[in-house]
């Protein structure tokens, strides 16, 4: 197939893939794309990025892009005046990255290594495993609140509050300030003019939280990051703000969506749910399969080509934007047998929902632990879980990249 033909095909297909109508089920389009080409030209889904854009659809090329240092998340390498992920100040970067400085998500090289290593000290396997009793306690508390009434909105009552309470306790966010986080999270994923005020509020909140920890340090992650100021390996003020904001947002948003989408998938596949109830030892594997089968992230942070190169036969130019369709890669027939089937006993060693390479999700062990506990507790305590509304009434959030449900009413 010629590059010109690929472009024609891309125009027809990506007109659909980035539309809200494809949020719930992009997988038929992904399959169509993979069958045609591994890398195809797309219109940039980001209004603030003025560059030719490409979408990676197959597993091998996805892994290549995510680990190849010829692709970077740091747009300032190409344009020193660019903001985070390529925004300019005139396009709202000063609000959307209130953050001012880069976080580990938007930095590469030595800068990324330094930022990540400082946070990674608090995300050791031992530390995460030690959270197990508290996560279990929180899961039980949430279900205790709704058990007697026989129904709940699984998003509002369980999938959202569990990870926000976990990350808030880790970071030292007060209990009475956690509900506001949902509004700020929605604003962070929106590019509407209405979101700007919410973003400024979030920025001011994070600044206040850091100031409070500086005055009254406690046994939490933000206090530990602040305490690094006394060492020679500290975060700058703007880096601290960026990192704290990232941890508050990333620490709950995707896990919440994993729990809600995953629960819906188990309701859609009662035979798989029944198997998990009969064999709860399979739940860790089921978490991996739910992430592979219908994960919460369309694409990780956008990459920019640092030089002219060829990728799967396509000529990529320096500065081009490259997006990796994680859901498509996770359904690649050359890697996963019967990828369109949900199999909670599937043995997976290489799904890409957490990314790959140096930017592999730092919070993956925490998300896996929360998923294991949340699904185990839900299935054990509510074995007769069922939808409370017709399936077609389940609404998805209006965000192509961060996929999730608006609500999931259930009876039990």
Highest CATH level, the class: Mainly Alpha
Radius of gyration (CA) equals: 21 Å
- What is the CATH third-level topology name? Cytochrome p450
Q: For the terminal residues, how far apart are their CA atoms?
A: 53 Å
- Counted up, domains total 1
Counted beta strands: 10
Please state how the strands of the largest beta sheet are arranged side by side. 1-2-8-5-3
Quickly count the helices: 18
The helix fraction, in percent, is 40-55%
Give the name of the CATH superfamily.
Cytochrome P450
Largest sheet: 5 strands, mixed
Structural class: alpha+beta
3D shape: globular
Describe the fold and architecture.
- The protein has a single domain, classed as Cytochrome P450 (Cytochrome p450), CATH 1.10.630.10.
- It is 48% helix and 8% strand.
- The chain is built from 18 helices and ten strands.
- The strands form three sheets. A five-stranded mixed sheet has the order 1-2-8-5-3.
- Strand 6 and strand 7 form a beta hairpin.
- Helix 11 packs across helix 13.
- The N terminus is likely disordered.
């Amino acid at each position: 197939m010629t590059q010109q033909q690929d472009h024609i095909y891309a125009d027809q297909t990506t007109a659909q893939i980035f539309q809200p109508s494809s949020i719930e089920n992009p997988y038929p389009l992904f399959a169509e794309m993979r069958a045609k080409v591994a890398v195809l030209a797309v219109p940039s889904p980001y209004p603030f990025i003025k560059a030719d854009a490409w979408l990676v659809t197959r597993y091998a090329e996805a892994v290549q892009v995510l680990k190849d240092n010829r692709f970077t998340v740091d747009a300032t390498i190409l344009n020193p005046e660019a903001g985070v992920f390529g925004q300019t100040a005139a396009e709202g970067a000063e609000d959307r990255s209130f953050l001012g400085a880069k976080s580990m998500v938007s930095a590469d090289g030595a800068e990324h290594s330094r930022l990540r290593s400082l946070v990674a000290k608090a995300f050791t396997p031992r530390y995460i495993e030690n959270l197990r009793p508290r996560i279990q306690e929180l899961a039980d508390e949430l279900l205790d609140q709704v058990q007697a009434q026989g129904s709940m909105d699984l998003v509002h009552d369980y999938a959202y509050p569990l990870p926000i309470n976990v990350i808030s306790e880790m970071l030292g966010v007060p209990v009475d300030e956690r509900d506001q986080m949902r509004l700020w999270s929605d604003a962070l994923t929106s590019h509407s003019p209405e979101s700007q005020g919410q973003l400024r509020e979030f920025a001011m909140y994070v600044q206040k939280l850091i100031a409070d920890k500086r005055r009254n340090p406690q046994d939490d992650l933000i206090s530990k990051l602040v305490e690094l100021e006394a060492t020679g390996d500290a975060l700058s003020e703007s880096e601290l703000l960026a990192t704290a904001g990232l941890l508050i947002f990333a620490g709950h948003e995707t896990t919440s969506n994993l729990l809600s989408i995953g629960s819906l998938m188990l309701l859609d596949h009662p035979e798989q749910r029944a198997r998990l109830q009969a064999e709860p030892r399979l739940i860790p594997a089921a978490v991996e399969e739910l992430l592979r089968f219908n994960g919460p992230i369309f694409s990780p942070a956008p990459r920019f080509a640092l030089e002219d190169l060829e990728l799967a036969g396509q000529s990529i130019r320096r500065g081009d934007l490259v997006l990796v369709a994680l859901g498509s890669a996770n359904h690649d027939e050359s890697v996963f047998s019967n990828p369109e089937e949900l199999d909670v006993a599937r043995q997976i060693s290489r799904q890409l929902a957490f990314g790959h390479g140096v930017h592999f999700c730092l919070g993956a062990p925490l998300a896996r632990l929360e998923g294991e506990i949340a699904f185990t507790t839900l299935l054990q305590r509510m074995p007769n879980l069922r939808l409370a509304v017709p399936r077609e009434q389940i609404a998805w959030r209006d965000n192509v990249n961060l996929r999730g449900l608006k609500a999931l009413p259930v009876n039990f």
